[in-house]
Each structure stands twice: as structure tokens, then as C-alpha cells.
């Protein structure tokens, strides 16, 4: 499995294959790397059965800086196997679909190996697909049905929370620049991909551009265990500690100020009923809360192609200061789809994102060190607690869409104050993401 997810061999094969004709293995218009199964794949989709298989690989090497500047290359990989069923075609259940997804992660993180002080709590990551264990997981197993001309949609089963709330685009390799932000700062109660958990949600489109969503998801530490593959398929609710309840208002306008180009704006809040520990005192609180804002807008359109042009997004999260180590996160990203007429499916991306560590947590770290006799940074003492503040992540990338089946994304990242520790030298990282759809 680990060899399968290695970047080098497959990347080299892809890069050395030149200008294949339309029906060959690496042709530029090939939808799936393994083809259409002599037409059977398209026929199955027409009947309501859609199958997916993909490998994502993210490599990163440290160019300069970080806690340990000894150069190395680390690679993280993810295998995804999925199926989607249109039950209106299969069983005659109108406006009803079901999803099944299994994932396997492997590899190592450059951030853990070189960038961060190992004594400090992890904040960002140069490879967003690293984390939640090197195990097989049942990531999705849900059913969704619509009512009232599909204006009301009800979903129940095993799923990730950012599948339906606090979701965002992922045009980057850096963790905080990719997808929903809540799982990066309140991971004990908000579970993103690849973790699946029991939950349900309902969404109501009460106007053409407006919708309101409400969800209820279990808070169960068993869902993030990583000791064995059985942990990834544990479906019991024996150790549920409470529920996370998100609500989100979404607006999808076409504003005249942006030449009627599409946008999406979301505000949301959550409350968790699970007990949470006070950051400073250690006392247990009845629950915790968070608020968020997601905004994405297409700013320009290139010619007559509605997909080409400049896009911008902003994501912000504010967490409960009493109980959360990361008080807030902010993300701003720009990407241009179709920068060249000869490469209409490529894109150029630039983003920056910031973690803000709760000053109550910083004060506790300072007090802990002073109690142990440390009044300045000690690079070697094992019981010294690094003082953490803000961490800024920046990424510039180019997405090379070889075909619908193959994507390559070289990128350059800059990490200011890794894990918020000012004594650790700012880091420069070169990365390469690759995705292959089979």
C-alpha cells in the first residue's frame, strides 16, 4: 500500500508521457485513467450507479528554516474508493441518493518531521491529507432524500461534518488553505474527512438563492481512534459524550457588482453539548461554541467560458475562548482558472491563512515554564513548553490538469512562526500534489 502511494514512480511516468492520442492511456481528454470499461461505466451511471477510485499523493521537502533544517522529502497519500447510487433510477425513490466511501491514508508529514518544535501542539500542516491515522476508514455511508420539489433535503448516516457545513473550496496543498476550517481548530468535536460519524441534517431552500441548514452529529472519541483498521469501521455509540449542533445560512447570489457572476456566502454557528475543559483552569464546562463565515465569489470571466476567470474566497472561524486552544482562524485565497487558452483547465492559486492561539493558553504556557524555572526559550530541555502565538501559512501553486483523470500541483509554501513559536525559524517548503482518478 505504501509503495502504491509513493509519488516518484507514477509522477515520472506521467511527466515523460507526451501528447498521447485521444483514446490512449494518458490522453488529455481521458475521463478515467482505466477508461470507460468498453462503455459499461457510462451505462452504469445512466442506470444510477456511479463508482469512483482515486489516489491523492502530496510530497513536501524543506528548503530552508524550520525547527530542523536537515533537508528531507516526506510523502503523504490517500486512497479513496466510493460509490453513489441514484435511487430514483434504481428503486423509483424520487429525489433520493445514497453514498458510500472508504479511505486509506499513509505516509508521513514534513511538518511533524522537520518544521515544528516537537514539544509544541501542532497547528498547520504542509500536507493537508496527512492525519487521522494510517488506517482504513468508512468515511461515508449515508442516504439523502428530498421533499417539496427537493426544496427540503434530509440526510442521515455516517458522514463528515464539513460535507454539509462550513464547506469550502480546496485549491491548495497546505492544510489551512484547503476546505472547511473548523476541523483544523476544534478537531475534538468537529470531524472532517476522512473521519465518518453518525449524524443527520436537514436543509431548506426557502428562496431561490437562500437556504438554511441544521444538523446533529455525535461527539464520540472512538471515531478518531487510530490503533487498527477496526477503529475506522467502529459503528457503535457506546462512548458518545454529547452532540455537535451546527446551523448555517447560505446565500448564492449573482450580484450586479460582479457582473452577475456566481457567489456563495455562508454564516454559521455551532454548539456542542459535550463537556469541555477550560483552557486556563482545567475545570469542566458544560459545552462550547463556534461561529464562522465562508465567502466565495467569481470576480471575472474569461471570454465566453463561465468556468474560466478569477475567484476569491474568505473563510473565518471564531471559537469559544474559554475552552479552545486556537481562538480563531482566517483564510484568504485567490485562484485563476484557465490562465492560458492552451490550458483552459489549469489554474494558478495564491493563498494565506492564519492560526491565532488563545492568549489564555499562551499565558498558561508561560506560567508553566516559570514554575519550572524557565524564563526564555530552551531549545533542548524536554520539559520546556514552547510558547505559542500566531502561525501564518502562505502558498503559491500551479495546477496542471493533464486530463480529467490526472492532476499535478507543484507549490511553494512559506510558514511564518511555525506552530506559533517565534524562536523557530520561518520555513520555506516545496511541494507537489498529484491526484489520479481511476
UniProtKB/TrEMBL annotation:
GO terms for biological process: carbohydrate transport. The keyword Signal applies. One of its GO terms (cellular component) is membrane. Transmembrane segments: none annotated. Residues 1-22 form the signal peptide. One of its GO terms (molecular function) is porin activity. Belongs to the OprB family. This is Porin, OprB family.
Amino acid at each position: 500500500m505504501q509503495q502504491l502511494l509513493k509519488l516518484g514512480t507514477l509522477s515520472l511516468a506521467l511527466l515523460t508521457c507526451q501528447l498521447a492520442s485521444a483514446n490512449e492511456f494518458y490522453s488529455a481528454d481521458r475521463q478515467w485513467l482505466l477508461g470507460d470499461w468498453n462503455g459499461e461505466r457510462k451505462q452504469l451511471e445512466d442506470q444510477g450507479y456511479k463508482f469512483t477510485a482515486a489516489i491523492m499523493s502530496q510530497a513536501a521537502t524543506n528548503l530552508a528554516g524550520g525547527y530542523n533544517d536537515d533537508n528531507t522529502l516526506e510523502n503523504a497519500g490517500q486512497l479513496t474508493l466510493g460509490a453513489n447510487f441514484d435511487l430514483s433510477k434504481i428503486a423509483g425513490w424520487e429525489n433520493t441518493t445514497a453514498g458510500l466511501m472508504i479511505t486509506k491514508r499513509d505516509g508521513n508529514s514534513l511538518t511533524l518531521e522537520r518544521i515544528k518544535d516537537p514539544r509544541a501542539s501542532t497547528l498547520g500542516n504542509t500536507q493537508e491529507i496527512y492525519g487521522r491515522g494510517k488506517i482504513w476508514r468508512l468515511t461515508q455511508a449515508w442516504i439523502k432524500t428530498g421533499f417539496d420539489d427537493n426544496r427540503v433535503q434530509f440526510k442521515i448516516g455516517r458522514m463528515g461534518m464539513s460535507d454539509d457545513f462550513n464547506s469550502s473550496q480546496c485549491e491548495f496543498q497546505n492544510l489551512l488553505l484547503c476546505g472547511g476550517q473548523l476541523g483544523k481548530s476544534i478537531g475534538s468535536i468537529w470531524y472532517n474527512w476522512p473521519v465518518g460519524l453518525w449524524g443527520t441534517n436537514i436543509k431548506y431552500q426557502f428562496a431561490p438563492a437562500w437556504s438554511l441548514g441544521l444538523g446533529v452529529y455525535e461527539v464520540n472519541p472512538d471515531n478518531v481512534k487510530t490503533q487498527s483498521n477496526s477503529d475506522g469501521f467502529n459503528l457503535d455509540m457506546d462512548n458518545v459524550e454529547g452532540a455537535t449542533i451546527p446551523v448555517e445560512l447560505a446565500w448564492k447570489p449573482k450580484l450586479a457588482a460582479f457582473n452577475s457572476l456566481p457567489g456563495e456566502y455562508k454564516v454559521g454557528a455551532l454548539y456542542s453539548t459535550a463537556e469541555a475543559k477550560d483552557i486556563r483552569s482545567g475545570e469542566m464546562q458544560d459545552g462550547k461554541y463556534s461561529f464562522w463565515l465562508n465567502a466565495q465569489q467569481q470576480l471575472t470571466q474569461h471570454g465566453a467560458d463561465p468556468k474560466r476567470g478569477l475567484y476569491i474566497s474568505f473563510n473565518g472561524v471564531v471559537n469559544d475562548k474559554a475552552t479552545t486552544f486556537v481562538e480563531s482562524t482566517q483564510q484568504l485565497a485567490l485562484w485563476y482558472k484557465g490562465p492560458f487558452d492552451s490550458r483552459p483547465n489549469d489554474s494558478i492559486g495564491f493563498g494565506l491563512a492564519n492560526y491565532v492561539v488563545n492568549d489564555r493558553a499562551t499565558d498558561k504556557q508561560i506560567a508553566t515554564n516559570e514554575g519550572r524555572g524557565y524564563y526564555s526559550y530552551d531549545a533542548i530541555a524536554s520539559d520546556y513548553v514552547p510558547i505559542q502565538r500566531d502561525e501564518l501559512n502562505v502558498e503559491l501553486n500551479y495546477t496542471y490538469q493533464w486530463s480529467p483523470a490526472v492532476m499535478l500541483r507543484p507549490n511553494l509554501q512559506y510558514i511564518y512562526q511555525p506552530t506559533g513559536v517565534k524562536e523557530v525559524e520561518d520555513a520555506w517548503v516545496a511541494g507537489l500534489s498529484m491526484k489520479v482518478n481511476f
